[in-house]
């Protein structure tokens, strides 16, 4: 057995930004700005939901979980990218890579399930309004939220356990900007058929099933909305779903492009763009979508700002 086959890597090198000369000079500030917008925007949504009693409903309860997930998802990848830009060294240790992949898969898997639960919540509100308080009581909401996190955690644990068995035989260059299953399997030197099979099967349950469930929920929602006779009633019913539907399209659209890659793979430049879109765009857009399109969120924000302004004026007078 040669030296190549005996050497297990302790560090990986990301090649995602290698095609961009002096990438650390041009990309650090944009990535930092996007990360700050993501964290502050989602933190604002989460805080508003906790402070405003009018937002203590199942829809906003799940939205608070979505905001937490978006902060976590972005924090798994972007800070490491920023650190690498600062040190001008696109590397990550083996243990850090496994940890990054585990948490990334936990949060993305949980978000898929959570979006499906949120779709069911909208279905219950519009199609079963008389039974809504029973279908989505506080106990059901808590169990549903816990189940989505457990779903993502178990999925990530399975894939991370399988990925930890991969051997790389000295090859440590990843054509990506963060650690994920497909690029790791691509550079592995041992048999990955089991990993590929498990990945395909898991994707059906973790990605495809929640997506189809969400689509089915909106089919029933649309059918119910079309039965409403008044235009005002239709607009009001649709407005309660518009933000969630937009988030679903953005999230699953980016996930489809990122994970449903052609057999030949993307070019390095395209792969970098797709990966960047997946890890930073949905978490950044979600709070913007909910704050710009949702009157209740805008109303809660206005009340908080007005309260802060009054407190500031009173403190100046004393």
Describe the structure.
With 318 residues, the chain is mainly alpha-helical. The chain contains eleven helices and three strands, in the order αβααβαααβααααα. It is globular and about 65 Å long. The termini are far apart. Residues 1-6 have low confidence and may be disordered.
What is this structure's SSE topology?
Blueprint: H1 3-6, E1 11-14, H2 23-51, H3 58-87, E2 91-93, H4 94-127, H5 132-135, H6 138-163, E3 173-174, H7 181-187, H8 193-226, H9 231-259, H10 268-293, H11 295-317
Parallel strand pairs: 1-3
Antiparallel strand pairs: 1-2
Structural class: mainly alpha
Strand content: under 5%
Ends apart, CA distance between termini: 81 Å
Strand order of the largest sheet: 2-1-3
Question: How can the largest sheet be summarized?
Answer: 3 strands, mixed
Q: Provide the gyration radius in Å.
A: 22 Å
Tell how many strands the DSSP assignment holds.
Answer: 3
Topology as a string of helices (H) and strands (E): HEHHEHHHEHHHHH
> Unreliable runs, pLDDT <50, ≥5 residues?
1-6
- What value does the average pLDDT take? 86
State the gist of this model.
The chain has 318 residues and is an all-alpha fold. It is built from 11 helices and 3 strands; from the N terminus they run H-E-H-H-E-H-H-H-E-H-H-H-H-H. Strands 2-1-3 form a 3-stranded mixed beta sheet.
Structure keywords:
mainly alpha, 318 residues, 3-stranded mixed sheet, globular
């Amino acid at each position: 057995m040669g030296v190549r086959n005996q050497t297990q890597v302790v560090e990986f090198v990301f090649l995602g930004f290698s095609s961009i000369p002096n990438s650390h000079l041009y990309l650090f500030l944009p990535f930092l700005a996007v990360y700050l917008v993501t964290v502050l925007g989602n933190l604002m949504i989460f805080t508003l939901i906790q402070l405003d009693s009018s937002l203590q409903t199942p829809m906003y309860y799940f939205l608070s979980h979505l905001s937490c997930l978006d902060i976590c998802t972005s924090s798994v990848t972007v800070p490491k990218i920023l650190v690498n830009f600062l040190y001008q060294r696109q590397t990550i240790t083996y243990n850090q890579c496994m940890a990054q992949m585990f948490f990334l898969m936990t949060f993305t898997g949980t978000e898929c399930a959570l979006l499906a639960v949120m779709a069911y919540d909208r279905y219950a509100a519009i199609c079963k309004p008389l039974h809504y308080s029973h279908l989505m009581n506080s106990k059901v909401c808590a169990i549903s939220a816990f189940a989505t996190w457990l779903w993502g955690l178990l999925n990530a644990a399975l894939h991370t356990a399988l990925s930890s068995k991969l051997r790389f035989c000295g090859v440590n260059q990843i054509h990506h900007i963060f650690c994920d299953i497909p690029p790791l399997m691509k550079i592995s030197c041992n048999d990955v058929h089991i990993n590929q099979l498990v990945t395909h099967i898991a994707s059906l349950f973790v990605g495809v099933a929640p997506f189809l469930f969400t689509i089915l929920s909106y089919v029933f929602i649309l059918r119910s909305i079309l039965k409403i006779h008044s235009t005002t009633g239709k607009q009001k019913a649709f407005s309660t779903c518009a933000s969630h539907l937009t988030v679903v399209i953005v999230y699953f659209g980016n996930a489809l492009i990122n994970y449903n890659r052609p057999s030949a793979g993307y070019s390095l430049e395209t792969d970098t763009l797709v990966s960047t879109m997946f890890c930073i765009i949905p978490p950044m857009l979600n709070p913007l979508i909910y704050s710009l399109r949702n009157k209740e969120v805008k109303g809660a924000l206005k009340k908080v700002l007005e309260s802060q302004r009054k407190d500031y004026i009173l403190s100046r007078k004393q």
